[in-house]
Design goal:
seven-stranded mixed beta sheet, three-stranded antiparallel beta sheet, 14 strands, globular, binds pyridoxal-5'-phosphate
Length: about 375
């Protein structure tokens, strides 16, 4: 029996005996919060990303919040990020008392931040950039890092969409100063809730580790294992800890990540064959010599002026779930005032045309073809004037 109302959901989680057994072992171990599984997951994640430190946290938003605090971003600072983005990064900037400054995207073929517009947004208060790898496709990190070096700001990667994506073989998340991952239920590595901060900077890692758990110098696990008796509180931290059950799921999922990303790549390539250029549709992010995508989202651009709500409704009627990633942040009420400070013409134009199609590693060929047919027919039907 399908767990979904629709024949092809936007994303789907594969549940199997290995995951069930891993969770059961964590449950019966009797140690449920941070312990050996979290430590193992952190080590495995650090090795996977090729970084010195990985710090497990409660979710991807907590990772962004801690990255900003670790980088010393605070009141009066500005942080540049693309507006075509999930709102978590902007919210995290607001929570540390800084101001988000939105930059534009490159264009129809690359929905990532535009380094030129980003540099134009740099001012005396710019303290950091949060670089999103939209849909799992690496943004232009070489250009961004060159600007960061010239202008002197910190580069935080929002790699929530990009676990396993790489540039010249180097993993996204490990390219800037500090990287943030999400293990939310719909991500490439689904756990439910969970996240990870990665960095090669030992000082940053130590700050993030302290802030994750109330700024306390020792953890319950250390106490229980006789490693520590007293503790100090050295900063006003949070409870952003990851637990053993989630780490157990994360470890199983990590073992499958590369194969799943490869399956996602094959599905996106099939979508491209079936859709690119058909009926005015286009798919951003083609093949790139240096950059390898994690294919988190299958995004198409609808023809100019196509009525997206009607197309989505028709696709839903045909059993296909769709979404929009994302309504740009600067259009939300909470960000309208800061959002109006800079023109974002490409974001404005492209946002109207975005449509996200179903994508998950175990999609069948029939499902991919059914989605492609549904979108083509919905677009063609919407273009036909009612008689
Ligand atoms: C680009 C991006 N950044 C950050 C987040 C926040 O992650 P989480 O939901 O784990 O807090 C998400 C996903 O939800 C996301 O898509």
């Amino acid at each position: 029996v399908s767990r979904h109302r629709l024949a092809v959901p936007l994303s789907d989680i594969a549940v199997d005996a290995e995951i069930e057994a891993a969770v059961e072992r964590a449950v019966v171990s009797g140690w449920w919060s941070m312990g050996p599984r979290v430590a193992e997951f952190e080590q495995a994640w650090a090795a996977f990303c090729g970084v010195k430190s990985a710090i497990g946290v409660a979710n991807g938003t907590a990772a962004l919040h801690l990255a900003l605090l670790g980088a010393g971003v605070g009141h009066g600072d500005e942080v540049i990020l693309p507006s075509l983005n999930f709102v978590a990064a902007a919210n995290s900037v607001a929570h540390v008392g800084a101001v988000p400054v939105f930059c534009d995207v490159k264009g129809e073929h690359d929905l990532n931040l535009d380094p030129e517009d980003l540099e134009a947004a740099v001012g005396p208060r710019t303290k950091a950039v949060i670089a999103l790898h939209y849909a799992g496709f690496p943004c232009d990190m070489d250009a961004l890092l060159a600007i960061a070096e010239r202008q002197g700001f910190v580069v935080i990667e929002d790699a929530a969409h990009a676990p396993g994506a790489s540039v010249d073989g180097r993993m996204c998340g490990a390219l800037g100063d500090i990287g943030c991952f999400s293990f939310f239920a719909n991500k490439n590595l689904p756990v439910g809730e969970g996240g990870m901060v990665v960095t090669n900077d030992a000082t940053l890692a130590e700050r993030v580790r302290l802030l994750r758990s109330h700024g306390m110098t020792r953890l319950t696990w250390d106490h229980d294992h006789g490693h520590a008796h007293g503790y100090d509180v050295v900063s006003a931290g949070f409870n952003y800890r990851l637990d053993e059950l989630r780490a157990a799921v994360g470890l199983v999922q990590l073992g499958r990540l590369q194969a799943r990303n490869a399956a996602r790549a094959r599905i996106v390539a099939r979508y491209r064959e079936l859709l690119d250029g058909v009926d005015g549709l286009s798919l951003p992010f083609g093949e790139h010599e240096q950059r390898s995508s994690a294919h988190h989202l299958a995004v198409v651009l609808l023809p100019h002026g196509a009525p997206r709500p009607a197309i989505q409704k028709e696709m839903e009627r045909r059993g296909v779930q769709t979404s929009v990633h994302y309504p740009p942040i600067h259009r939300f009420s909470a960000y309208a005032a800061v959002g109006s400070r800079r023109p974002l013409p490409r974001t404005e134009r492209l946002a109207e045309r975005l449509l996200t199609l179903p994508l998950y590693a175990h999609m069948t060929d029939d499902q991919v073809e059914a989605v492609a047919e549904a979108v083509c027919e919905a677009v063609a039907g919407a273009a036909t004037p009612a008689s």
